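User: tokens in, sequence out, please.
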């Protein structure tokens, strides 16, 4: 936050534009945000049905007969590196031009030379990636790949491997010598032996573990209460306690918001309850204890986690309508592949408010993070599934089933009270607020998925009590609002100073003075800053990159 204030102070005394964003991204160890290739690999395979000019019925058969290997085969140099100027298709390495300096590129299953069972050999497939095939060693091939991505602007390179038995120190040294930023160690090893080995052999390597639970990727099976079981949250918290980065694992994409809120909110509560157990202090230095959300970045960043988006865009790769639900597109959908600006805004927010460790546990076992608050009121998102809407439809017998998935309507992290939320009519949005340990506060509203309606983004009147409303107060505001009230009941809210209020679309490089468009008021000991929802949209969407981008607003506000 000091960098943000310094940037503004310099701008106020000169002619240059005001920029509230620090220019530098946090280190990989502080913010290991990444874009993962797995769903893009799937979209590449789905595009094959378009190229074959299949009918809807043939498209359903194409889906039924899919294989894991077909997804894996799409990890290749053409999809990664090559742009097609005729169709508009972008190679994955060229996605997110404003955000990739804040993200690692993670190669998911399929980059390795052979089946997933040999992924621990860490050998880049020379046929899939021939531009790096002539390097003299496994480490050199991966380093050449990583350097190429850094030259394009990415923060670094990460790789997926199958989980289970951990790799030994000499194997992990390959990743160290290749300057790999992150190891996505997928499943098993719930005591995090891989983290301990990596801490000795490659201290800067971020190790990620993942664990789902019963009914995965569904939170609550049909006929249940539709919520994430507490036993699953406790089991996840045990793994989080000993790893650098814990992934809350695969979810049903069309219901990703409710599912990830349910998982991560309960993970935070279970982990908070466990962090006083000194037996969890197994490693020295401590594991980083961050969490990520596997394809639902809005929820994850709102809760102070590490975003792990998998979306891209469909330019140049149109899909059969059968697959709209799977990729989050089609009529009345969230249009997930048309929300690239959202990724930019969330990635750049981490420069101001990096993700932070669950529990903020110290080496002496003390816990400095305050307990999360989970609303007793449960909201339910729901969807009636068609065959191709998700990979789990067949295995979980969901075709034609209306599935509700529930989670707390409001969640706050690290000491903030639950906000007051009201709408004039219709459904409530999900609302999340977080106090970051370096000072900033974020408030996020998120839309709903409702059977028979589709995706909607309700505009609510939201009131949040914050620790301070004084000079250098920094607030991240995400989503749609009717109005937003920020209230402070302490001495850290002063009206006898001529405050200026600046706001900046997080996808932009310049702020605007909105002082004349907001309202200050005082009642008793409470001071309130009121911001119209229309102003949040005006500023928070001002740097929209394309006419067809439908991302929600995202801005940083600074009182000075």
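Assistant: Sequence out:
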């Amino acid at each position: 936050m000091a960098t943000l204030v310094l940037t503004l102070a310099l701008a106020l005394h000169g002619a240059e534009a005001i920029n509230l964003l620090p220019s530098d991204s946090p280190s990989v160890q502080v913010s290991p945000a990444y874009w993962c290739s797995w769903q893009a690999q799937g979209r590449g395979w789905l595009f094959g049905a378009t190229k074959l000019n299949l009918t809807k019925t043939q498209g359903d058969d194409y889906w039924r007969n899919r294989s894991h290997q077909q997804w894996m085969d799409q990890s290749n140099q053409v999809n990664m590196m090559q742009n097609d100027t005729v169709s508009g298709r972008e190679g994955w390495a060229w996605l997110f031009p404003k955000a990739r300096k804040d993200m690692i590129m993670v190669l998911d299953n399929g980059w390795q030379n052979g089946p997933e069972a040999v992924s621990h050999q860490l050998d880049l497939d020379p046929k899939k990636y021939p531009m790096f095939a002539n390097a003299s060693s496994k480490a050199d091939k991966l380093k050449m790949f990583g350097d190429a991505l850094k030259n394009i602007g990415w923060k670094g390179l990460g790789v997926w491997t199958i989980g289970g038995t951990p790799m030994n120190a000499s194997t992990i040294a390959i990743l160290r010598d290749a300057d790999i930023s992150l190891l996505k160690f997928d499943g098993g090893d719930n005591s995090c032996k891989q983290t301990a080995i990596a801490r000795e052999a490659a201290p800067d390597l971020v190790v990620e573990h993942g664990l789902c639970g019963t009914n995965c990727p569904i939170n609550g099976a049909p006929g249940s209460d539709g919520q994430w079981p507490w036993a699953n949250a406790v089991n996840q918290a045990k793994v989080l306690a000993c790893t650098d980065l814990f992934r809350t694992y695969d979810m049903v994409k069309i219901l990703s918001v409710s599912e990830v809120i349910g998982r991560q909110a309960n993970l935070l509560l279970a982990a908070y309850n466990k962090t006083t157990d000194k037996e969890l202090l197994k490693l020295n230095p401590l594991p980083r204890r961050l969490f990520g959300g596997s394809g639902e970045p809005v929820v994850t960043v709102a809760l102070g986690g590490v975003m792990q988006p998998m979306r891209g865009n469909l330019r140049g790769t149109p899909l059969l309508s059968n697959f709209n639900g799977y990729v989050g597109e089609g009529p009345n959908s969230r249009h997930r592949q048309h929300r690239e600006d959202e990724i930019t805004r969330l990635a750049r927010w981490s420069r101001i408010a990096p993700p932070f460790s669950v529990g903020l546990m110290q080496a002496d076992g003390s816990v400095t993070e305050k307990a999360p608050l989970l609303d007793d009121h449960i909201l339910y998102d729901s969807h009636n599934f068609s065959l191709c809407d998700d990979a789990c439809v067949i295995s979980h017998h969901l075709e034609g089933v209306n599935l509700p998935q529930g989670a707390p309507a409001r969640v706050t992290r690290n000491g903030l009270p639950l906000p007051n939320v009201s709408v004039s009519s219709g459904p409530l949005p999900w609302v999340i607020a977080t106090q970051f340990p370096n000072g900033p506060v974020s408030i996020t509203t998120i839309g709903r998925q409702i059977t028979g309606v589709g995706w909607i983004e309700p505009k609510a009147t939201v009131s949040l009590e914050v620790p301070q409303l004084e000079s250098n107060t920094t607030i991240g505001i995400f989503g749609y609002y009717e109005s937003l009230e920020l209230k402070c009941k302490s001495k850290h809210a002063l009206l006898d100073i001529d405050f200026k209020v600046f706001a900046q679309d997080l996808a932009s490089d310049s702020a605007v003075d909105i002082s004349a468009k907001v309202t200050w008021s005082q009642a008793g000991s409470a001071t309130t800053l009121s911001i119209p929802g229309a102003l949040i949209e005006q500023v928070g969407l001002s740097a929209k990159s394309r006419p067809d981008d439908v991302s929600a607003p995202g801005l940083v506000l600074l009182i000075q």
